[in-house]
Amino acid sequence: VASGTGMGLPAAVRDRVAAVHRGSTLLERLRLYDGWAARYEQDVAALEYRAPHLAAASLAFAFPGPRAEARLLDVACGTGLVAWELHRRGFRCLHGVDGSAGMLERARSTGLYQELRLCVLGKEPLSAPAEHYDAVTVVGALGEGQVPSTVLPELLRVTKPGGFLCLTTRSNPSNLRYKAELEAALGQLERSGAWQKLLAQEVEYWERATSEEESTRGTGYISGVVYIYQKCPVPHLEEG
Fold this sequence. Notes:
With about 240 residues, the chain is an alpha/beta fold. It has one domain (about 10-230): Rossmann fold. About 35% of the residues lie in helices and about 25% in strands. It is built from seven helices and seven strands; from the N terminus they run H-H-H-E-H-E-H-E-E-H-E-H-E-E. The chain has a seven-stranded mixed beta sheet with strand order 3-2-1-4-5-7-6, with helices on both faces. The chain starts with 10 loop residues before the first helix and ends in a 9-residue tail after the last strand. Mean pLDDT is about 90; it is low at about 1-5.
């Protein structure tokens, strides 16, 4: 298939990805994710989906302390793609939440998580106590019709002061309105002194586009962005 026509992706993969992004209600989408769980990793491999790798690499680069003891929360953890990447970089204490029971079942089978919980973010709070995690990741779920940008204060609540938040979103045309909303919310929290921005990295080849309209300048890929924030107050290094 020429790259211009359907981007060279198998039609079934294109349809499954499109269905999830198009899902009318949150519950409808979660049901689609349940059904997608078994084929999800093959499909994202076909998409050349780089967000888990890029996010984990960025977080590891920003993270100052020893990684093995650090407690991390992987929000919208899916089948555990982010956990694999974090584990490879020495993070061992991983907790995950997702709105799809089917996805959580897959994540459980990886053996990478100490704790997994069903949680529909945006509809219910996280079950974790305040200031519990050294880092929180939300990779791939901050998008149109998925996790709303209104969850940011809840993510901050469970993060320790000085802890890190690693977030990603897509920059393809159908997500631009959401991205603008997200960035407005990120900026507002920064101006209020809740956190400081360490990184906002635009990545051109985020994943393969499922349609010509979504493709960045005809590359056949869509672009995305990785954000790293640090919750205030940032602990000062001891003098002496």
